[in-house]
C-alpha cells in the first residue's frame, strides 16, 4: 500500500498535460470518442483520454480559478473560526490547496461551489450541513492507482473541511457485473482486504463510516426504494448501455449506488433533529462514476432532497 501511495504521488505531480489530449482542432474532430464508463476507460488516441471532450459530453462544469479561490476561502474560514473559538481542529484548516486541484487532476464538478458555500455557513453554528461520500467495489485484494486517487482526494477534503464521511463497499455490484461471489470466504476476504487499504489512508475514525452493501442494506433500503421508484428502466438502460439479456441486478444497482447521496440513508450515522434540513452530499470520484450521480441529481427534486454535489478527477492509467 505504501508503494502505491508513493507511486501515486509521482504520477499526479506530472501535471494535467499527461492525461489530456492537446491535438489540433482537425485531429479532435476526426478521432472517435473515448470510452468512459463505470466499468471501463479506454482512449482511442495515442495521447490518452481527451478530458476536454469528456467534459463536454458529460455536460459538467470545468474547475476554474474562481472555484479554486472559493475552496481556499472555505478552508481558511474554517481555520479562522477554529482559532477564534479555540477548538482543537484549528490546524486542519492550514493546509494549502491540494495539488490535485492546482494541477488539473480534478477537472470538473457539479455545483461544488454551492456545497462549499453551505459548508462555510455551517462554521458559525458548529453543526455539519454536508458530508462526503465515496466508495470502492472489491474486485481484487489490492488497489491500483486509479482506485487510490479518489481516496487521496477524499482524505484531503475531510481534513480541510472537517466533514463526516461515508464509504460504500459495493460487493453486490461486483456480483452483478463480474460474477464475483457475494458470500463465503472469498467474498469476505476481498471486502476485508479492501477495507484495510481504505483505513490506511488515515481517515478520521470519529467521522468515518465504512459499510458493505449486503450488510448495511437494512437502514439504507427505504432510501433505495425511493430512488428506484423515481428512476425509469429506460433511463438506466440508456445511461449504462444495458441490454435486455442483462440480469435484473444490473438495472437495479444504480439506485443502490445513488442512495448514499441522500442523508436519509444513514439515520443513525448522520442523525438529524425534526425540522432540520437534509445534509448536502459532496462526492469526490473519478469521472467514470459520474453517470450514477447524474441519475441521483435528476431524481433528487422529486424526492424533495438536495441534489448531490460532485468533484471529479481524471482516470489514471492502470
TrEMBL record:
PROSITE patterns named among the record's database cross-references: AA_TRNA_LIGASE_I (PS00178)
A molecular-function term among this protein's GO annotations: tryptophan-tRNA ligase activity
Keyword terms: Aminoacyl-tRNA synthetase, ATP-binding, Ligase, Nucleotide-binding, Protein biosynthesis
A single GO cellular-component term on record: cytoplasm
EC number annotated for this UniProt entry: 6.1.1.2
Gene Ontology biological process terms in this record: tryptophanyl-tRNA aminoacylation
Similarity-based family: Belongs to the class-I aminoacyl-tRNA synthetase family.
Name of the featured protein: tryptophan--tRNA ligase
Lineage: Eukaryota, Discoba, Euglenozoa, Kinetoplastea, Metakinetoplastina
